[in-house]
Amino acid sequence: MRLITAVIQPHALESVTDALREHGVAGLTISEVAGYGRQGGHTEVYRGAEYRIDTIPKIKLEVLAEDADEPALVEVIVRAARTGRIGDGKVWTSEVGSVVRVRTGEEGASAL
After folding, report:
1. CA distance readout (Å), 66 to 11, 34, 111
2. Predicted structure pTM score
3. Are 84 and 75 in contact (CB under 8 A)?
4. Which of 58, 70, 81, 96 could potentially form a cystine with 12 if both were Cys, beta carbons 3.0 to 4.6 Å apart?
5. With contact defined as beta carbons under 8 Å apart, do 25 and 78 qualify?
6. Alpha helices per DSSP H over the chain
7. Number of C-alpha atoms within 13 angstroms, CB side, residue 53?
8. Could you describe the subunit structure of this protein (predicted)?
9. Where does residue 11 rank: exposed (0-12), middle (13-18), buried (19+ CB within 10 A)?
C-alpha cells in the first residue's frame, strides 16, 4: 500500500479531484493547509497598513493506493495541478504498513 500526498493550489482542487475520479479513485482526504516554498509569502495592505503574510493557503490531498497504481496516480495529480508557475505544489508517496476499514474490519486492498 502507498499513501500519495499532494499539496496543491486551491484553484486546482476541482480539476485534480475530477481527474482522480475519472481514473477510478474511490476516496480521498482533503485538508486546508498553509505554507510556503520558493514563492515565499506576500504583503497586503489593510486600512492603510502593510502586513506581511508569511504563509500561502494550499490544499492537501491524501490518497491510499495499491503499489501498482502509484505511478499513474502521481502522474494524474501532477498533470491536473500543473500551471507552470511557482507554487503549483508537491506530490510525494509513503509506504503504508496496514489499512483497516473501521466499519467492516476489512484489511489491506479490500479496505480501499
Report:
1. 28, 28, 11
2. 0.85
3. no
4. 81
5. no
6. 13-22, 70-81
7. 12
8. Homotrimer.
9. exposed
